[in-house]
Write a structure and sequence with these properties.
Blueprint lengths: L1 H10 L5 E3 L5 E3 L2 H10 L7 H13 L7 E5 L6 H9 L8 E6 L11 E2 L9 E9 L6 E8 L9 E6 L15 H15 L3 E4 L3 E2 L15 E5 L17 H16 L6 H19 L5 H27 L17 H4 L5 H27 L5 E6 L3 E2 L3 H5 L8 E5 L9 E6 L3 H6 L3 H11 L4 E4 L7 E6 L8 E4 L2 H15 L2 E4 L9 H7 L4 E4 L20 E4 L8 H5 L2 H8 L7 H21 L7 H9 L6 H14 L4 E5 H5 L48
Parallel strand pairs: 3-7, 8-9, 8-22, 9-12, 12-16, 16-19, 20-21, 21-22
Antiparallel strand pairs: 1-2, 4-5, 4-6, 6-7, 10-11, 13-15, 14-15, 14-17, 17-18
């Protein structure tokens, strides 16, 4: 059965072997293969089941795919479309192929012979294919995608966890007005070309509000937590006593010290939102109606999920009564008792759309070449709004994670339910392209967290260790086609976070398609493990020093991450070994900085000072590392706002939940003193020794 199980797994894109982070080949356990295949709707629990499934696959080998993606070539798209279709025709077999430009949107264009068209425009269309062997014509969705995205101008910009970037006007969490102000100030004063922020995805509408922006309730819609209350048009129309009451509430939130409190902020903002919405008296507004039409059923389902979550006191739909667990049931969506509350949540999304647009306008008006770059998380939790909206898209009993690697040697289970690749293909990848379009509508770019999501994901069976998962393949060409088409439509840049264990060939494919990778300085080494020289870095990349899963530069050079992981029991080898490796790696980078003339102090002197706990060289190290980034060919250089103000604490420690205050650390300086947006001073920031070109 082993060989047959292997073949069946390969039919469905399930890896039976993989190379770990050390380059060693690992065989996937048969129990893992059986569990993953079951999540894909394939019974492999017995030899007979495996043989039956193989027979069904062989019968479908020459079936036309539900979705076809082709790249526009120099000679147009008609030839590539026909060439791709011939892959599914038998020897000498012919077929009649017709195309409906736009796929029926707008209606009335109808089908026409494909061969009579000189070219096919970029975008989505529909094919009707008649083969002699088929009793009926087969309809195939077609995407004509750009061959590659054009490169953006060379630019640098801040990377920031927006919720931590507070001001003297925000309500205890950074918001969209703060984002607009940060972009405007850094663009005009510092010459920055972009601001990259964490995912602004929707959170739970009832407490507790999850702190992680990478584990959202929905990737399709943003979180009302980021609304600036006073910038909503309805606020100015409130009676004076209401405005005074809310101003006092906001002042109390701003006066809070310690960790960020999303529950308190959401409770305060929700009270303000409800007061403003009641004051509007559901007045007709053609712009609101147009927004609802544009967003369609997806908005209605999300808003209904919010309303039911409030009604049930929990946002995890798996804990709701059985009658409410299926969004497709008319009894759920058509219940008039929750229409008014759902309309309230639709209104919040409309106001978010306006403030997101205002932030991008502020960035471009300040001269930014790119503007706001939004982040797209890998997935959503099992009981989220997105899984409720269409559960058939998701694999049951599976979580997305990562195999063991250098920095997370136990592997990771992110508690997120993966999309089924076959379900995505059947639906023309609509969910993926819709969320990409939503993120790009008011942005100059998008960052794809864990870029491997367009090619393969690590699936972990429920109850298993993260180390006992396996990779499941997605149609890379189709997903990249969707992504680049949406980016071309909006004139945006796409950055993929291709760190960790990366599938062979993926980085080259991203480059060919004009999708940038990520070059993280601490990980950039040559074949001998030494720091990679600046001239050998990738041009098509976003170059940064660290990431949100690591401490800022100052904390890193002092080894704070090792002390933290040791205290939390996350090290898998002796602390002394970790510290020895850290000192060797850091010494190597100090040698490079000194040799490049970016750090005047001798590396040995700096290392001795760090060993003694001295902070004398901290600011010089930060500036030297930023200067080094500007010497690489990378077209985009990202400077963490936390690094610029001297922060030492990490925002997230992988492998922890409550053991560390992940995603709740406000922006502060090296002494832990909060830094507000108004406190930012170009002369005091640790940026560059001279302005980058």
């Amino acid at each position: 059965m082993a060989d047959e199980l292997t073949r069946l797994a390969e039919y469905h894109g399930v890896a039976t072997r993989y190379d770990d982070w050390r380059g060693r080949e690992v065989a996937v356990a048969p129990d893992t293969l059986v569990a993953v295949l079951a999540a894909l709707g394939v019974d492999a629990s017995s030899p007979a089941g495996v043989r039956d499934a193989l027979e069904r696959e062989r019968a479908r080998e020459d079936a036309l795919p539900p979705t076809l993606v082709v790249r526009r070539g120099d000679g147009g798209a008609t030839g590539p479309i026909l060439a791709e279709l011939r892959r599914y025709l038998g020897q000498g077999e012919d077929a009649e192929v017709e195309i409906e430009i736009g796929g029926g949107e707008p209606p009335g264009l109808g089908f026409e012979p494909l061969e009579q068209r000189v070219d096919v425009p970029s975008g989505w269309h529909r094919l009707r294919v008649r083969r002699l062997r088929d009793r009926h014509p087969v309809h195939v969705q077609l995407l004509v995608a750009p061959a590659a995205l054009g490169p953006p101008p060379r630019a640098w910009g801040f990377t920031a966890q927006l919720y931590s970037v507070r001001s003297r006007a925000s309500w205890g969490l950074g918001d969209l007005r703060d984002l607009a102000d940060l972009a405007a100030w850094s663009g005009r004063t510092l010459g920055a070309g972009f601001v990259l922020v964490n995912p602004l995805h929707a959170t739970e509408p009832v407490p507790p509000v999850g702190p992680s922006p990478y584990s959202p309730a929905s990737r399709r819609f943003p979180s009302p937590l980021y609304l600036r209350v006073e910038d909503m048009p309805e606020y100015a129309a409130l009676p004076a006593d209401d405005r005074e009451r809310f101003a006092a509430t906001a002042a109390a939130l701003r006066a809070g010290t310690g960790l960020l409190d999303r529950d308190a902020v959401w409770a305060a903002k929700l009270a303000a939102f409800e007061t403003m919405y009641r004051a509007r008296r559901d007045a007709p507004d053609p712009l609101f109606d147009e927004f609802r039409r544009r967003e369609g059923p997806a908005l209605a389902r999300f808003a209904t999920w919010c309303a039911i979550s409030e009604e049930q006191g929990t946002s995890d739909w798996r804990r709701w009564p059985a009658a409410l667990r299926r969004a497709g049931d008319h009894a759920v969506m058509d219940d008039p008792s929750r229409h008014a509350r759902a309309r309230f949540h639709e209104w919040l999304q409309w106001r978010l759309d306006g403030q997101l647009a205002a932030a991008q306008r502020a960035a471009l008006d300040a001269g930014m070449a790119v503007g706001i770059v939004h982040d797209l998380a890998v997935g959503v939790p099992h009981g989220s709004a997105d899984t409720w909206a269409d559960e058939s898209l998701y694999a049951p009993g599976m979580s997305v994670g990562a195999p063991p690697d250098e920095f997370n040697q136990r592997g990771q289970d992110w508690g997120q339910r993966p999309w089924r690749p076959d379900a995505l293909a059947r639906g023309g990848y609509a969910p993926f392209r819709e969320l990409a379009a939503a993120a790009l509508r008011h942005a100059g770019g998008i960052r794809l967290d864990h870029a491997m999501q367009v090619s393969r994901l690590w699936w972990v069976p429920e109850g298993a260790s993260p180390a006992d998962g396996t990779y499941v393949r997605y149609d890379r060409d189709a997903l990249l086609g969707c992504l680049t088409w949406e980016a071309e439509r909006f004139g945006a840049v796409v950055v993929g976070e291709d760190l960790g264990t990366v599938e062979q060939g993926l980085r080259d494919e991203l480059t060919r398609r004009g999708v940038f990778g990520t070059s993280l300085l601490w990980f950039e080494r040559d074949g001998s493990g030494r720091p990679k020289p600046a001239e050998r870095w990738r041009e098509a990349s976003l170059a940064t020093v660290g990431s949100h899963d690591m401490p800022p530069i100052t904390g890193f050079v002092h080894g704070d991450h090792i002390e933290l992981r040791d205290r939390l029991g996350l090290l898998t080898r002796p602390r002394a070994d970790e510290e020895d490796d850290h000192r060797r790696a850091l010494s190597g980078w100090l040698d490079v900085l000194h040799g490049e003339g970016l750090l005047d102090a001798a590396p040995e002197e700096v290392m001795r000072a760090l060993a003694d706990g001295s902070t004398a060289y901290d600011e010089r190290i930060v500036t030297a590392l930023h200067d080094f980034l500007t010497r690489t060919p990378a077209r985009l250089v990202g400077i963490s706002l936390a690094d610029a103000v001297g922060e030492r604490r990490t925002q997230n420690q992988p492998g922890t939940t409550d053991e560390y205050p992940n995603w709740r650390v406000p922006l502060a300086d090296a002494e832990g003193t909060p830094v507000l947006l108004e406190d930012l001073d170009a002369r005091a920031l640790n940026l560059f020794s001279r302005a980058p070109k």
